[in-house]
Amino acid sequence: MQRAAYQVAEEILKLVSNSAVRPGERLPGERALAERLGCSRNTVREALAALSARGLVEIRMRSGAYLCRQNHPSPDGGRTGPGEALDALVTLGPALVERVCRVAGVSEHEHAERITARLGRALVDRSPLDAWRGLTAFYSALAEITGNSLLCAAMGSIARSGAAGGFENLPELAPAALQQFFAEHVEMLQAMRRHDVALASRCAAGSLDAFGRMLWQKNGGERN
User: Fold this and answer.
1) Which CATH class for the 82-221 domain?
2) Which stretches make up the HTH gntR-type domain (predicted)?
3) Average of pLDDT values for 8-18?
4) N or C: which end of the chain has fewer CB within 10 A?
5) Topology adopted by domain 5-67
6) Taking the domains of the chain in order of start, what are their residue ranges?
């Protein structure tokens, strides 16, 4: 399965962190990065566009991508990037959905739906940061339903790391991508209501992947 652009973006950051590339210097070309990371050139292009939106690289027409920051981004220290925070949520989110799907009663499902309504309102302004806060509020609520304090702490850490990691630097969300994400999220809720664990888990994974695509997709449905 092709990795999402947000995952490849974080891998590019790690590659830069471990390389001799200095601020102002050119990154390896799209083809070289695609071969190194085992993904398509289109995915590399989307990942570089996402890094450009975060102010980490500068894309120069017919020249390539250049490192912007004075310090190499570190995968082991400093601020966590949006892609890394989302990757953690992609790992934990479907597991939370499965667990809640098995144990939740009517009141818990109603609570999850109320949180989703707030998520929908957060999406109105098409702000990536507000969307992230709304999404992590939903999964934090699921963690609370499980009653497991470690899961709650993990979700709190993911939510805080993402909120502090640069979502405010991403471009405004594209309406079509936003609608696709929210439709998949609602489909997941419906599967949870029916206690269809397998479908709910698949929908959770699909909606989170759609969230990642939504972050990097430009307005008008165009991609870099």
Assistant:
1) mainly alpha
2) 2-70
3) 84
4) N
5) Arc Repressor Mutant, subunit A (1.10.10)
6) 5-67, 82-221
Both tokens of residue 150?
């470690």
CB atoms within 10 A of CB 97: 26
Helix (H) or strand (E) holding 70: none
Over residues 214-223, mean pLDDT: 55
CA gap 171, 35 in Å, rounded: 28
pLDDT of residue 220: 42
Q: Which of 150, 134, 151 is nearest to 97 (CA)?
A: 151
pTM for this entry: 0.67
pLDDT exceeds cutoff 50 at 200:
yes
Please choose, from the candidates 78, 92, 95, 83, the residue with its C-alpha nearest in 3D space to the C-alpha of residue 132: 83
The CA R_g of the chain, rounded to the nearest whole Å, is 18
What tokens appear for 32 in the block?
């070289």
